[in-house]
Amino acid sequence: MAYNITLLPGDGIGPEVTGAMRKCVDALGLDIKWDVQEVGEYAIKKYGTPMPDHVFESIKKNKVAIKGPIVTPIGTGFRSVNVLLRQELDLFACIRPSKCYAGTKCKADNVDIVLFRENTEDLYAGIEFEKQSRECLKLLELLNELQPKKISKDSGISIKPISVKGTKRIVRAACEYAIKNNREKVTIVHKANIMKYTDGLFLNEGLEVAKEYEDKLIVRDVIVDNLCMQLVQRPEHFDVLVCPNLYGDIVSDLCAGLVGGLGIAPGANIGNEIALFEPVHGSAPKYAGQDKCNPTATLLSAVLMLRHLGEPKQADRLENAIAEVLKEGKRVTYDLMPDRDDPNAATTTEMAEAICQKLK
Ligand code: NAD
After folding, report:
1. SS3 call for 174
2. Rounded to the nearest whole angstrom, what is the distance from the C-alpha of residue 297 to the centroid of ligand 1?
3. CA-to-CA distance for 123 and 20, rounded, in angstroms?
4. pLDDT in tens, 277-313
């Protein structure tokens, strides 16, 4: 089968890690047409915006995209391209697997967690009121009128919306993924004991959705602080986690830390029609152009993409080749070496070549 895939190299180290990814995916021999689109700093120079309209059109047409990281410029007036993409394309599920590969700086064996983070709501919805602004003072007045606790007038306010629709679709996506990928347990993460009308809703609606799956899955719930402790003490106990946006953001970094850090953490943003794959890490500008950074997170994002495309055998081939190179630990980038200053560390390109040679 032929595939059209939008490739956004991004900026900073993005072009290097996506270049490595493309080399390895092309070596699988699939019929892929890459629709390469400039975004971020390169697009600002050429089109005056980090995210031109024709890039959205390409993603909407191809339905599948993979991207490198993109700098979020501070104080330029441009919105984060990453947030824009998630909102504009309604990519409501952020999926972040954390798995231990031999040869990496894994803190515990047998970690194999897939975290689903709701991507559109919660304190991340971007509904904020600056302290002392006209809108904030008006809202404070209303809030002080509506409920007994008096909020200090010098407060800023962030709003935490969590909806039935948003909850049901993320919990359903997590359960469907669990079944499709032969996983047994889904854990709903919340703080419903304190935030009854938001996290409480997330828990109750989540459990309601879970009833549809009770003959196929074990669905549990856990309070987020308790989860953090248990993840450190016995991470192998967890399988699929499903979280509201903010807890998902924090807990996924904890999980990435458990399995060896950002260099090997892949991700996917999925909506009903469109899927966008990307490493969790940023554009590491200080390393840009040095052919030095670890391509594994982007390569593992491509593994997720291949599974999404219905190419499980090719996904396994690529994942096994990555795992072998990591296990041998010889032709890997500086961050995977016991001594980060080891002059024998591989470049990004050399690590990609080593992975291509391991493809069976
Ligand atoms: P970062 O992830 O870019 O880098 C932090 C540090 O992590 C680096 O200095 C490096 O030591 C290490 N690192 C990251 N990726 C690595 C890799 N592949 N191999 C080896 N080491 C790696 O985070 P930051 O410095 O906070 O952000 C830099 C820029 O990236 C910011 O503009 C930020 O907004 C943006 N960002 C983009 C995305 C995205 O596009 N999805 C995600 C996060 C941050």
Report:
1. helix
2. 12
3. 35
4. 999 999 999 999 999 999 999 999 999 999 999 999 9
Cα 24 to Cα 28: distance, rounded to the nearest angstrom: 7
CA of 66 to the centre of ligand 1 (A): 17
Which active-site residues does the annotation give?
124, 191, 225, 249
Domains parsed from the chain with CATH numbers: 1-95+263-360 (3.40.718.10), 107-121+163-258 (3.40.50), 123-161 (no CATH)
Q: pLDDT digits over 33-79, tens only?
A: 999 999 998 999 999 999 999 999 999 999 999 999 998 877 666 77
| 82 CB within 6 A, ligand 1 | yes
Q: Is any ligand 1 atom within 6 A of the Cβ of residue 207?
A: no
Nearest CA to ligand 1 atom 25: 284
Could you tell me the distance, in angstroms and rounded to a whole number, from the CA of residue 220 to the centre of ligand 1?
33
List, in sequence order, every residue forming a beta bridge with 118; answer none if it has no partner.
Answer: 93
DSSP labels, 234-291: -GGG--EEEE-HHHHHHHHHHHHHHTT-GGG-EEEEE-SS-EEEEESS---GGGTTSS
